[in-house]
Design brief:
Length: 460
């Protein structure tokens, strides 16, 4: 992918570039999700208390990681702008400062994981689960610096158009984690069975493995030599790190808001009974899996828009946004339609409980509607990041997903006039659909305003 791509790039060319960039990211994300699924299966076969501990512990771990990693994603638009403008001499220093920022952010993350008391109190977990959850978090904390350093490498590779290595590393990590976690949890390496602690140790080990693979690749691949990544290594530069924070903190909060708006539903819906929570969990897992496609496409849009913006090729940036929305929205609609047509066998894969299946089938319709609007707002939000516009989108995320989605869902589930006779978890999904509709409109309006603003200097 050339940093000096012409503004006359046709829609078909941009489609090819988007798909070329998105499919390795999609595979890498699915492989990462498969590690979480493997943890559930492996620990579930060991014991119920350990399964509960990995469920609670992974929830805390993912929340912390997503918040901090979101901040580090500022490396992607920053490097993409340098790449698009041909400022290769600025790319290496930006990556170096990204690594320093990752190490700085690891400190509060580790503290939260080593001392998770107030977070676990929010979940009111039983004492035996609490003890095992702390073991899991303590083990995974050892790998947190590696996670953040690797995700900085991840953002950098996306920005310079080299996503395939991320897929390869994800495959190596997943292929290592599954047998290692199984051995440590069940005691097959001349060690006593470690239960959920073994799962945490394996996670920490493969996180360092991922970072080691990334470092070796950076050092040995000749494609990175023009950037002089390890030459003239500098210590932390406050001005550059502050610039990354100004761009990245709103991105991290946006990610946290969007993720937490769904994770908190399970807590609010707990009063509705186990079947309602389980049915919601099934549909939420399906939604998360489907979301991987629009997310991968959106990351590709961010990179291409960032490169075009760096080259001040505003026509190509606009074309990328339009093509990205059309392709992503079309693919999401097709997936939603296929999910609706196969709804009964799909739901049956997750549970044999008829009550849970009934809840899942009732909620699945919302996924099918949700996908189109969610894909549009996701592409628009990432395109804005490509333009380095992040603060206002963060406010919009809070209004849409915490305001309309979460608060509105609580009202629609428990206090709406049509639900006074019987509260239902469907209210959260009804509000979730509405939140994505509002988000699609707001982000579309803001994105259009940003693109028009870039056209003003060229208008005369």
């Amino acid at each position: 992918m050339s940093p000096s791509s012409s503004s006359s790039a046709s829609p078909s060319t941009i489609v090819r570039q988007l798909l070329h960039h998105a499919w390795p990211i999609l595979v890498a994300q699915i492989l990462s999700m498969s590690m979480l699924i493997a943890d559930t299966i492996i620990v579930g076969r060991y014991g119920t208390v350990d399964l509960a501990a990995v469920a609670v512990g992974s929830g805390v771990y993912i929340s912390i990681v997503m918040l901090v990693v979101g901040v580090l994603q500022a490396v992607a638009p920053t490097v993409a702008h340098h790449f698009g403008a041909g400022r290769t001499e600025r790319i290496g220093p930006t990556l170096q400062q990204g690594f320093w920022l990752a190490l700085m952010l690891a400190v509060p993350g580790i503290v939260l994981m080593v001392f998770p008391g107030f977070l676990l109190e929010l979940s009111s977990v039983p004492p035996d689960v609490d003890a095992k959850t702390r073991e899991y978090l303590l083990a995974t904390a050892a790998g947190l610096p590696a996670v953040l350093l690797y995700r900085t490498f991840y953002a950098f590779n996306n920005a310079v158009g080299k996503p395939r290595v991320l897929m390869a590393i994800s495959f190596v990590v997943t292929a290592t984690h599954v047998p290692l976690a199984w051995a440590l949890v069940h005691g097959h390496l001349w060690l006593p069975p470690l239960g959920v602690l073994g799962c945490g140790i394996s996670t920490a080990i493969v996180n360092w493995l991922a970072f080691a693979c990334g470092t070796v690749h950076l050092a040995r691949n000749p494609g990175y030599r023009p950037y002089h990544l390890f030459a003239h290594w500098r210590g932390p530069q406050p001005a550059e790190i502050l610039s990354l924070l100004r761009l990245g903190v709103p991105m991290g909060l946006s990610t946290f808001i969007e993720v937490s708006s769904f994770t908190l539903i399970a807590l609010f819906a707990a009063r509705l009974g186990a079947e309602a929570v389980a049915g919601h969990r099934v549909v939420a897992n399906l939604a998360a899996l489907i979301y991987m496609l629009p997310l991968a496409m959106s990351i590709a849009v961010l990179v291409l828009v960032g490169q075009a913006a760096g080259a001040r090729d505003w026509a190509r940036a606009r074309m990328t946004v339009r093509v990205g929305m059309i392709v992503t929205g079309g693919l999401a609609s097709l997936i939603g339609l296929a999910m609706w047509l196969a709804r009964k066998p799909v739901i049956a894969l997750f549970s044999e409980d008829e009550a849970v299946r009934a809840v899942g089938l009732a909620l699945l319709l919302y996924i099918c509607i949700y996908q189109l609007f969610d894909s549009v707002q996701t592409v628009a939000a990432h395109a804005l990041r490509g333009y380095k516009v992040t603060f206002v989108p963060m406010l919009m995320h809070a209004v849409c997903f915490w305001g309309v989605g979460l608060a509105g869902g609580y009202w629609a589930s428990f206090h709406a006039p049509w639900r006074t006779a019987g509260p239902h978890v469907a209210g959260f999904w009804e509000a979730g659909v509405m939140s994505t509709v509002v988000a699609a409109v707001l982000f579309g309006w803001l994105l259009r305003a940003v693109m028009r603003r870039q056209d003003l200097p060229a208008a005369p």
